[in-house]
Write a structure and sequence with these properties.
Elements: H1 2-13, H2 32-38, E1 45-52, E2 55-62, H3 94-97, E3 105-109, H4 114-125, E4 130-135, H5 138-152, E5 155-160, H6 166-180, E6 185-188, H7 204-232, E7 236-241, H8 256-276, E8 281-288, H9 302-310, H10 324-331, E9 342-345
Helix pairs in contact: 4-10, 6-7, 7-8
Length: 352
């Protein structure tokens, strides 16, 4: 993979050890509303809801992801980020250099764990100088920021934010700009999924909650960061994580609300891309297929996962870092003429 090739060269060029980040590099910014929302999540655990035959099942997944009702993480789950040695930048040819992000600042929502954290690692590996992780879960987010900063030496800060809370988002974005001086990249990975619920029995409050997080939340974060990018007159790249579910109807699970929310994210991407192109802001979306994440390692999903794999031409689920290079590409100058695109990365699932 491209980012690994750059990083291997970087590792050979210099074997210097990055000093651990100081405690001051990891800070928590809260509002009353976001703190109240965070209290819904028990300390050290992530409450995950799945449905089987319309019956709600709550599963508590330990933050450490190495015990409880889910399988131990695969090798890719715990890959350490390898910092890009700045001395190698001048040695890269023009093509390779376009895939690096020296001096840039990124905001990653839902970056406390899973796909969001892995994509944050990838951005750190290609040279960003600062990463702001937004997540509703304080302990998870603080640990993620500390870990990433220690791995790479990048200035990583955590901001406790619920993406449904517009005032909390605006406060955090303002604080990010005050600290870093700019925002160049937004990667919105925050989202939830409810599935195996028949449309005729779907609770309306649950429907509103999912739409508020997946779609309205994506808009609120993009709006707040977009305003800063417009004001800076420096442009930027906004990447919204959608899903192949925004373009197809999944089988065998019923998930009308989730599908609708991700279809909305795809259309939001296209709309923002056309409105903000004149400001030098590019907006693209990533639509993953079925991914092998900790949240999918729930016994209730075992039978469905067999169907997902069988219907995927590559005969596997996506690895947690399969999205990394795409995220780097969309964030970097390598995709300078690309906006409004929905990039499906699903092992070929949507081809059948």
């Amino acid at each position: 993979m491209l980012s690994r090739q750059i990083l291997n060269a970087s590792r050979v060029a210099s074997k210097r050890v990055i000093a651990p980040a100081t405690q001051s590099s990891v800070r928590t910014f809260k509002t009353v509303q976001s703190q109240q929302n965070a209290e819904e999540i028990k300390a050290g655990k992530v409450l995950t809801v799945t449905y089987k035959d319309g019956v709600r099942q709550e599963v508590e997944i330990p933050v450490e992801q190495n015990s409880g009702p889910v399988a131990p993480p695969g090798a890719d789950d715990k890959k350490a980020a390898i910092p890009l040695d700045k001395s190698i930048l001048g040695q890269l040819n023009p093509t390779m250099s376009k895939f690096t992000l020296p001096g840039k600042v990124a905001v990653v929502t839902g970056g406390g764990r899973g796909l969001g954290f892995n994509m944050a690692q990838a951005l750190a590996e290609v040279g960003v100088r600062g990463i702001a992780i937004m997540d509703v879960q304080q302990k998870v987010g603080e640990e993620a920021a500390r870990e990433l900063s220690e791995q790479t030496g990048v200035d990583v800060r955590f901001y406790q934010v619920d993406v449904r809370d517009g005032s909390a988002i605006n406060q955090a974005v303002g604080d990010i700009v005050d600290h870093y001086g700019q925002i160049d990249i937004l990667l919105n990975s925050a989202g939830i999924a409810d599935s195996n619920i028949k449309a005729e029995t779907y609770d309306t409050e649950m429907f509103r909650r999912l739409i508020d997080i997946n779609l309205t939340g994506a808009f609120l974060v993009a709006q707040s960061v977009g305003k800063q990018m417009i004001a800076s007159k420096n442009g930027g790249s906004i990447i919204l994580v959608a899903s192949m579910s925004g373009s197809i109807v999944n089988y065998p699970q019923e998930q009308s609300c989730y599908n609708a929310s991700k279809a909305g994210v795809i259309q939001l991407t296209k709309s923002l891309a056309t409105e903000w192109a004149r400001h030098g802001i590019r907006v693209n979306s990533i639509s993953p297929g079925y991914m092998d994440t900790a949240l999918n390692r729930v016994p209730a999903l075992d039978a469905q996962k067999k169907i997902w794999i069988e219907n995927t031409p590559q005969k596997r689920l996506g690895a947690v870092d399969d999205l990394n290079n795409l995220a780097v590409y969309l964030a970097s100058p390598a995709s300078a003429f690309m906006t409004g695109s929905n990039c499906i990365i699903d092992g070929g699932y949507t081809l059948w």
